[in-house]
Amino acid sequence: MQEHIVLVNEQDEQVGTEEKLRAHELGLLHRAFSIFVFNSRGELMLQQRALHKYHCGGLWTNTCCSHPRVGEGTAAAAHRRLQEEMGFDCELREVFSFVYKVPFANGLTEHEFDHVFVGTYDADPVLNPEEAAAWKWISPTDLQAAIAKDPDNYTYWLKVALPDLLQRM
């Protein structure tokens, strides 16, 4: 079954829909979200993307990220995908949004209007192996040092969103 995503303009107004892979082949701006879940010690839960993902397989990234379905609210989609990918749900609040565009070596382009959500959770996730290969808790300071040392191990959107998020917390 083909999954369709919501195409938007720079103001996050829907301008159409497109099949997900086709939207990434064409580099079309679409609605997305990134979730950052912290524990009570202030550590961030990272996931390592499953190796077979259509882009960025094996890279470390924020707790969860995806796209709302056509007709689905962004917050509802964030809760749905957190449960589907990481096996839990928690209270989430939207902190900010940003637009980015990055081409990948495989010919796909991620061009997203990305809504950033934050939550708190203290238990271990139950990973969906179709989505995530591994997970870990890491302090923001240690994560920033790891990104500086080896930026190619981390997703583009994590590297863009993290500094802005930390300034807002």
Give a structural overview.
This protein is an alpha+beta fold and 169 residues long. It has a single domain (4-168), classed as Nucleoside Triphosphate Pyrophosphohydrolase (Alpha-Beta Complex). The chain is built from 4 helices and 9 strands, in the order E-E-H-E-E-E-E-H-E-E-E-H-H. The protein has helices at 20-26, 74-86, 140-149, 156-168, and strands at residues 4-8, 14-19, 30-38, 44-49, 60-61, 64-66, 92-103, 109-120, 132-138. A hairpin with a 5-residue loop joins strand 1 (4-8) and strand 2 (14-19).
Keywords:
single chain, 169 residues, alpha+beta, Nucleoside Triphosphate Pyrophosphohydrolase, 4-stranded mixed sheet, 9 strands
Ends distance? 39 Å
Helix content: 25-40%
CATH names the topology as: Nucleoside Triphosphate Pyrophosphohydrolase
Unreliable spans are none
**Residue-averaged pLDDT, rounded?**
94
Q: Into which percentage range does the β-strand content fall?
A: 35-45%
| Number of structural units classed as domains | 1
The first-level CATH class name: Alpha Beta
- Helical run tally: 4
- Can you write the helix and strand succession as a string? EEHEEEEHEEEHH
Gist of the model:
This protein is α+β, with helices and mostly antiparallel strands and 169 residues long.
Please describe the topology of this protein.
Layout lengths: L3 E5 L5 E6 H7 L3 E9 L5 E6 L10 E2 L2 E3 L7 H13 L5 E12 L5 E12 L11 E7 L1 H10 L6 H13 L1
